[in-house]
Design a protein that fits this description.
Elements: H1 2-19, H2 25-53, H3 57-80, H4 84-89, E1 90-97, E2 101-102, H5 105-121, E3 128-135, E4 139-143, E5 146-159, E6 162-177, E7 180-191, H6 203-208, H7 227-238, H8 244-251, E8 252-259, E9 265-266, H9 270-279, E10 286-295, E11 299-308, E12 319-330, E13 333-343
Parallel strand pairs: 1-7, 8-13
Antiparallel strand pairs: 1-2, 3-5, 4-5, 5-6, 6-7, 8-9, 10-11, 11-12, 12-13
Length: about 350
Amino acid sequence: AGRRRGTCGRNRFRQEKSDRPQLNFYGRFAMVFLRSFILVIIPLCGICFTQTTGMGPSADVRDQAEIRRLMNEISDAFVVRNAEPFEKIYADDFVSVRGRPIYNSKQQLVAMMRADSALLKARKKLDFETIAFTNEEPDIRIFGDIAVATVLKNNDWQFRGSTCLTKYQATEVWQRHGSTWRLIAGSANTFQCSPVPWHPPHPAVAAIGDVTDPPLADPAKTETVPEDLTAMLAKVSAVEQARLDDALKAYFSWSYVSTDTNGERSNSGMSLIQVFRSAAEPSQRQSIDLEHFKVLGSSAIYTFRLRTRGRLGTTDRGSSVFYLAALVKNVNGWQFVASHAVPASVQFETSSG
């Protein structure tokens, strides 16, 4: 009985198979080609996309983790006064924009770390001490060979026993060098404790002083400002009110992030467009000066000052705001990926990092 049931089952299978439409040679060839396309061509397309972009999601995650690690390495170095991370991670021409652009910040930081490290080795107590330096979870965005990190930093410090917690809303620009990342520019809004303990400038920093004039461009090492970049900035300045939405799409990355003078973050480029438009309109009594470009191939760092003139016959003396902006060039041309605005001030605080 078992054999008969099995025989009937096989006969039904043969009957069903015989009832199926039979593919001719061309049909069978098409089926084989389709299977080959699915199994071979599509995976190869994925490989080609990864090789062309050089930047899949997993690569972004690895780069973000590495930059986060380097940020924490710098923070830890503040506490123990270790100069090595500053020498290794900061670019030699690193620019820091807080109350104004400073072009020798790396040298100041290294000098401070070395001076305090020597005192600690001599078993002497420091006047300036960093109790803790932490980075709240940073937002890190990768744009090819540069990255933009926006982060709130907490600096718990003291001077001769008087303590203070200073917060910084910061924007950092990093550049990839082979398999490593270097910090090339930064800007921050400072929020001090109240009252702030009296403290003089750090002696090692005061001995060096601030370099506020940008370094002279070396034609052998530094690219000139591309004409299409200056043309793009001119177009932003001249954009009409009715075309603002189009300008946002054309001149700002979809992941653009800005920080204003209050330390508030935004993903809209509208305020930066208005800066350029106001500076181009004489009636607004504003102008852009102290411009400096650092071109890095298909990316660029742009710093400038927006001056607002005071009104004649009043006590209004005007004001100034310094901007740090990062741009990248893609198939659509140059686009802003980040900007940071800080009110101008005379004093520059290097002891915070």
